[in-house]
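Extended Data, panel c. Modelled sequence:
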Amino acid sequence: MVVEVDLYSGRPNPRFPLEPAGIEELTRRIEALAPATDAGRPFDGLGYRGLRVLAGSDDTVAEILVSGGLVTVRAPDGPPRQLRDPGRALERWLLDQGTRSLDPEVVATVRRELR
């Protein structure tokens, strides 16, 4: 799995790999989240928009979007599931997984947005 920081428009977004132990922890954390019954839409403007987890072709999940307290899990077949991310805890945890791989300025920018 690869995590993409959805930050830029017009140039490639920074990415980092999620290690096997991180993949297991991500799965555990997602399973613990409650459904988002009154979910809105993730931010889609300029600047930091969230984190996108891109799965490999053999995974049961195609993409996970983590943004602004909302997690959207998209499977290769079937409707997306929306879950609540209280306090943006999953978003913060995912960013922490990439701090060694990402440019420090990218990390600082996202941390400011998460305040």
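Helices lie at 20-31, 89-97, 104-114. This feature is highlighted in the accompanying rendering.
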